[in-house]
Amino acid sequence: MAGGVGERFWPYSRKVRPKQLLKIFSNKSFLEETIERISPLIPRERMFIITNDVIGRAIRAEIPDFPGENIIYEPVGKNTAACIALAEVVTTARFGNPTMVVLTSDHIIRNKEAFLRNIEACCLFAEENEGLVTIGITPTRPETGFGYIEAGEIEKRTPGGVIHRIRKFCEKPGKEQAEKYLETGNFYWNSGMFFWKNSVVRAALNKFLPDMMKGMERYRKSLGTGEEQIVLENVFQEIKSVSIDYGIMEKSDNIYMLRAEFDWDDMGTWNALERHFPKDQKDNLLIGRGLLIDTEGSLIYNAQEGESPFVATYGLKDVLIVVSHDVIMICPKSRAAKLKDLVGEIRKNGLDQYL
Predict the structure, then answer these.
(1) What structural domains and CATH numbers belong to the chain?
(2) What is the pTM of this model?
(3) Residue 262: is its pLDDT beyond 80?
(4) Contact indicator for 269, 142 with CB cutoff of 8 Å
């Protein structure tokens, strides 16, 4: 799934260069890393990227060797349930009843061997048990930015990992609740990765989101008629925006979770960089050119391509500064998760050239 712009990484993330195409940790983008990470299990001819037309052009320019026919374009973003329902239609038409692996394009994953082992175990379990499977991440801190999964009894121990039944999905908690989840020991971060046979997820979508699937069936019947794009646009205008978690996972009873054996992080906000780069003695993180004087607990990202201005700070505390080629964004670090609000105000003021 690669359709979002990543507004919480503005101004480095833009319409024509969304977060999944940013190169923050290496000379490869998040999306390229995701493709390479799964390649030992799934060949590129069986990989699909779901995005939109604007981002799709940028993806094709960035990854020219990716099969163009495997890039699926949503007419408009309608959250993850619609994205996955569309993927089901397209991949069923191509391959019959395959096992689908759903990944997002902005995760940081270490220990790739364990990742592949866990992915394969999820696929095998999903095939054998007609289940809806996800991966839970053992929490290392009382994180309020992630959703949680409450794990139930162990369903199966496999060479590729331990699989639990899921008791319930939990929304992003407050600090106190997150601390309780951490203490309890049977709550896991929701990774947003999913595994199921196409027939199984289609049955769940039909059961819990019948109106959405009526539209998708119209699209399925249109394939090969030359009317596909018109039908798809009409369908996406009609259907509701709902997440796959809320749409089917929270309502189903054949849901399972494998405990991850790899290191994982979701690059949700700029503050996530502090977990992956070393900070100075005053708890600052500076990436790129700059000098921090009498500054504490701040994050400065000044690693844009090409000519970059020099950033000097003096007497600041807990501040986030991001420099792009035409925008300098400054806010308290505590507001990093709310950058969507700032982007919304810029849009309201007709400053789309900076989006």
Answers:
(1) 74-268 (3.90.550.10), 271-354 (no CATH)
(2) 0.92
(3) yes
(4) no
